[in-house]
Amino acid sequence: MCGIIGCFSKEGCYEKLMAGLARLEYRGYDSAGVALLSPDGALAVRKKKGGVAGLAGAPLPGDTGIGHTRWATHGKPSDANAHPHVAGKFALVHNGIVENYARLRAELAAAGETFVSETDSEVIVRLIARLYGGDFFAAVSAACARLEGSYAVAVLCSDFPGQIICAKQKSPLVAGASGGDLYVCSDIPALAGAAEYVCPAEDGEFIRIAAGRVVFCDGQGKEIPKVFTRLTAASRAETGGGSFMEREIAAVPRALADTLASLRASDFAPCARAMRAARRVFAVACGTAFHAALAFKDAVERDAGVPVLCHPSSEFRYRDPLVGPGDLVVAVSQSGETADTLEAARLAKSRGAYLLSVTNVECSTLAALADHNVAMRAGAEIAVAATKSYNCQLLCLYYLAAQLTFFRCTRWPAWFSSLDALAPAARAAFDSFSAVRALAERLRGAGGMYFIGRGQDVRTAAEGALKVKEIAYLFAEGCAAGELKHGTLALVEEGFPVLAVATSRRLAQKCENALAEAKARGAYAALFSQYEDVLSESCADFTCRLPAVTEALMPVVAVIPLQYFACSMCLLRGYDPDKPRNLAKSVTVE
Predict the structure, then answer these.
(1) Which residues of 89-148 form beta strands (DSSP E)?
(2) Which of 47, 168, 579, 585 is flagged as catalytic?
(3) What is the pLDDT of residue 364?
(4) CA 91, CA 133: separation in Å to the nearest integer?
(5) C-alpha dihedral, 377 to 380 to 382 to 383, nearest 10°
(6) Neighbouring C-beta atoms of residue 412, cutoff 10 Å
(7) Is it the case that residue 226 has pLDDT exceeding 80?
(8) Which of 112, 144, 451, 490 has its CA 20 to 30 Å from the CA of residue 561?
């Protein structure tokens, strides 16, 4: 899940590469580097452990360059393991994992190659150098033919000034253009503000930048016709003060309004037959998106009476799932490039299932793979911990649940007419932030915490816990309130925080009972609910009044104070919410 960028520009190529790396840093920030190629064939490289800011210095000369932000897969973060990697006349940046790298490395070492890094990526550039006989493209193509696994690579050769050769296999790669400037990049949002037009590559395709043109071709160099699309303003990052995470939480109301408008303008007729006739419904996703998929399961089973089999994408294809023709599979991914979700989606399609995707990037691999794509309008999300995209995923999945209910039962869910209330309620949730920050101040020294709920609030609890783990580096577990006494309660001691979400009036007392059990054992209890009487009658030490929407839609709103709580905990503990350790935004490796 590293970030790669390439640029050809007659003016300011180095500066444009650095700006692109800054936009890509959410995809990896344990090391960074650039390589510039001058018209006379001189190759200059600068790379260093740490973030992009560590590359500061005099601009490197050249009109053609490649850059990289790294998230370690092979080898610890170090200057030597940073990209670009160089061998002979070649410099290379790589995103992905070469699964047969050990065998190739041994072969190259036996042939006399000396390696200076621990990475699989250095194997690729040394293989290219070994295969080079004067034809730049042929050497890259021949090397890629020997690779197993996933890769997006961008390569420079000192014999070919003004050229970049790129290749893609199961790892995202997109070309961009703006005037005379040409780009390749691992992420469309990172081209926002630089490229005016973009076009993603498909698996097995190559991109060649040469003679001021960007061309797609196959492994034999035959040109593949492509259509570039205009890059919309929706791909730009949120502006304003504070961290990206704070800005993105602040953008939730706008994102919900934009997403709802887009959903209402969408045509669901193409997938009506699949929804109406589906013998089984599956949902696959990872991390935050998996919590949204579980909320989809709740809604579909409650309103349409249709069972939904919900699986983490990383496990789906390894358990030989009973998926096949006549089944509907919903795949959820903010980036549309999540490797495990893509593999689950490919398996489902290969077995004849109808694939419906929910993504925030319309030009993504998942969107192209799906039979029908539902596009969120969350806008670019730069912070690694997902916030506004989760709210928009919930909205999209509730909308899909409503469509499925209509196609199966010829009626709309009772809550369908209440969707307009979500954006104002999300804005009203900001009123709780001062109290939530005070809660974070109170709990900043905690060693861990539980988030609990009943019914659909279990999904919100799980997402709240995940956020705390991701960015505040605290043990946190989200669990069903009724399960607290079946082992989990053993860790509760004096002062241990237990945060409860109770948005169902029918289940509120059940949740309160669990909270009381924890408090009786010394827990510090906090309760989030939209019901004043539930709050006032609670044993909780801290209460937070949530804005009220119809109960079925409360997960969209109830999670917002928990998102802000995690962000506040992170900042109060002295961490950067945008760059949590060991994580990166778009998980493009399995």
Answers:
(1) 90-98
(2) 585
(3) 87
(4) 16
(5) -10
(6) 13
(7) yes
(8) 490
The Cα–Cα gap between 71 and 585 comes to: 10
CB 408 within 8 A of CB 306: yes
Residues 75-126 pLDDT 10s: 888 989 999 999 999 999 999 889 999 999 999 999 999 999 999 999 999 9
2 is known as an active-site residue:
yes
Question: With 90 as the cut, is the pLDDT of residue 50 above it?
Answer: no
Cα(105)–Cα(102) distance, integer angstroms: 5
Percent of the chain beyond pLDDT 90?
79
3-state secondary structure of 362: coil
pLDDT tens sequence across 267-278: 998 899 999 999
Please measure the distance between the N-terminal and C-terminal CA atoms of the chain and give it in whole angstroms: 10
List 2, 144, 157, 479, catalytic entry: 2
Q: For the segment 351-369, what is each residue's pLDDT rounded down to a tens digit?
A: 999 999 999 988 888 999 9
Predicted confidence band of residue 584 (pLDDT cuts 50, 70, 90) = low
Please tell me whether the peptide bond between 84 and the residue prior to it is cis, using omega within 30 degrees of 0. yes
Residue with tokens 């500066």: 15
Alpha-carbon gap, residue 95 to 120, rounded angstroms: 10
- Cα–Cα distance between 34 and 45 in angstroms, integer? 6
* SS3 labels along 169-210: ECCCCEEEEECCEEEEECCCHHHCCCCCEEEECCCCCEEEEE
**Integer CA distances (angstroms), 338 to 99, 295, 342, 389, 462, in order:** 18, 20, 6, 14, 20
Q: 35-44: string of b/e by CB count within 10 Å (b at 16+)?
A: bbbbeeeebb
Q: How many helices (H) and strands (E) does the chain have?
A: 18, 24
- DSSP at 402: H
Query: H/E/C letters for each residue in 18-85?
Result: HHHHHHHHHHCCCEEEEEEECCCCCEEEEEEECCHHHHCCCCCCCCEEEEEEECCCCCCCCCCCCCCE
